[in-house]
Amino acid sequence: SITLQHGAHRIGNRTDAGMARWRSLRLGQFIHWGLYAIPGGEWKGKTYNGAAEWIRSWKEMPQAEYDNLYKQFNPVNYQPEQWALQAKNMGAKYMIITTKHHDGFCLWPSKYSRYTVASSPWKKDIIGPMVDAYNKNGIDVYLYFSIIDWNHPDWRASPKTPADSIAYGRFKVFVKNQLQELLTKYPTIKGFWFDGTWDDSWKNDGAFSDELEQYLQKIHPGLIIGSRLRADEKGARHFDSNGRLMGDYEQGWERKLPEKIADIHGNDWEGVMTIPENQWGYNARWAGHIKSANELIEMLVKSTSLAGNFVINFGPKSDGTFRTEEVQRMQEIGQWMKVNGAAIYNGGYAGFEKQDWGYYIRKNGTDSVFMVVCNVPVSGDLRVKLPQQTTLTHAATLENPAQAITPEVTGKNEYFLRLETKNFHTPVVILLQTSRNTGNDNGRFEKAK
Ligand SMILES: COc1ccc([C@H]2[C@H](O)[C@H](O)[C@H](C)N2C)cc1
Known about the structure:
By secondary structure, the protein is α/β, with parallel strands linked by helices. 24% of the residues lie in helices and 20% in strands. It is built from nine helices and 18 strands.
């Protein structure tokens, strides 16, 4: 390995209580809200085919007109308590809110910028009431913060001249001030979700990203910050030039998930997912494939089975309400979580041989392993192959009333489970009680007690 001043400062996952809590939450709600919700992917009768929150970069959108949208920001139907209750009913245990996206508009009245809600017709702080409402409902809050700031005169994607470097130097002070301000105003937040860190200006200044992270940890110990913030002194991002993860979890899983446990290299990780193919901010016209609740539930189950968190994104409208499809997804996911949440919260990698019918999730630190069945085989037989010295002592569905299952046992520590009901509308969860190093002959299934 090479000597790095600004590479990873820790090998392996964090072992403190704050990170263990993050690891137990598993299901998060991402919210992208800002001026981009006003055009909602359309402008003067034309449809923008990119992601709605990027409409400012569209050639058909005059940037001055976009930048003046703050004069229309007035979410008269914004009710943070409703937002928080809705998220609680979905079963989300943490929420990530865009305090400032790439366009630079701040949803809090920052004293370091005039481009904030304070200058809008709404005038009031959006973030504070949201943090309070979510915390009151037992949901942890993380603040999304874009380093890229298209509105700030000192932002540079790639400084070319000495004047650029002086301007960008001022910008770095501005970033540090805004982050310190967010921590001071909203002390209950658990971490930052950084974005917009791919440009040369940031990539070629690994020292600053390292010092910034240490500065934030100093004023707010225990902050959880993913791998998108840092670059090392050679411009490597997420993983330093020695291949070691920088930050507290791998944060690169955006609209994609790992396939198998080897893909996560033992790191904590989080996947963030849009319901349409690629829309984070509100887009009036949802085109392409819109994920169903079952698809999102399966992604959540897959993430949990691979020891990662899964965050579903929502893009509220400019008036502060959510579109029907998003309300429906939250309700349907919430109904499933009410019955099966025990398989998700505190869930992790089981270490059993993957089967086609779905995913195994081990309740952390126990011999309780959940089978989440997403694909019932036409045979109706659900095969369970256990590692050596592990036997199955009991099996039952999670639903009410629980349906006890007597597996068929084969001699090779292999079991076949059959489900009575055949027609499923959502994934079915079966709880397996196992015991290890039992010493009795492999595969003997003791009758349910
Ligand atoms: C260039 O590809 C991109 C760039 C930025 C993104 C941003 C989205 O606007 C959203 O905020 C997502 C979390 N982020 C990675 C997505 C894809």
